[in-house]
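Our preliminary data section would be incomplete without showing what the modeling component actually yields. Below, a chain of 360 amino acids is followed by its predicted structure, encoded as tokens that our downstream tools consume directly.
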Amino acid sequence: MNIESVAVFGLGKVGELVAHLLVRAGFSVTGFDSRERPDLGFETRTLDVADGAELRDALKGADAVVSCLPYHLNIAVAEAAYDTGVHYFDLTEDVPTTNRVIELAKDRPDNVFVPQCGLAPGLIGIVGASLAESFTSIRSIELKVGALPQNPTGLLGYAFNWSAEGVVNEYLNDCDVLRSGERRSVPAMTEKERVFIGGIELEAALTSGGLGTMCETYAGRVQRLDYKTLRYPGHFRQMHFLFDELNLRDERELVGRILVDAKPPVNDDVVYLHAAVEGVSDGQPFRRNHVRAYLPIEIDGRVWRAISWTTAASAVAVVELVANGTLPGTGFVRQEDVRLADLLATRSGRLFETHGKVDA
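Predicted structure:
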């Protein structure tokens, strides 16, 4: 697959690092943002994503685009990639966005479309699918991720190091799951459970978007499949109060502003990743776990938050795998098509093995 020049749309918390890791991996990179960013060490330009002609013009000369924009802008980028014959990658957790990308991939078989290349969906699905490979029959795949402050305060015990808009949607949109092998849609912030990682007590609840396309992939093959978000104990009780007691479910933008003001980003964050598969392996019932806690790390002299580098490294590793021919270079590629061993063998994927990893 001939990917040499990559456009990165959105140079925020994650997009800047995506561009930097792409440069480290040997790609020619041009970054696009609504603001001027002349100080990043690679070519940058301003871009109005709402201008369709400008959007398509920005893709001229690029082999691929990685969209690190808010989820609601990704469909426009995917359609521009379709029109210009550019390979497409994004970080979205939004289900309607992914469904549109799947439609575009069907009509443009000579290009690759790889959405959901972040952390959840993304890395967590890659881990879960790789764990499942060793089972002859699978009873359950349980996937959990939490991006949290290391030193929480207050009743929420949280800091908005990720998009508030995305978090609110995950809490309110219905969740796809498998129950008794069949796809179902269930309310978010339900089916709570206690989880302990490295002696730290957390709580987990269903949230939307984290499974990507896995329900479709594993329907009829797995009895139970779900994705839950990890938080410190009591967090979801407070969110239920906010959305239900205060009747704010229809005020998503307002809630997002309130929450970011109350719990702004922090630098001392931690990303917890917890994947477990149960079934029959080597003729015996077995449960295989993959549990990690990732901390901030230094990359080329700069310290990056855990949520930023884990998301960016996973996304760029997938671009590397398409470019080197390990993954298909055409059509729609699911995150569960990626083998964890292959991801860890890329330059960006090696960050998970060599930096900031704490076995929990």
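The longest strand covers residues 137-149. The mean pLDDT is 94. Preliminary results of this kind motivate Aim 1 of the renewal.
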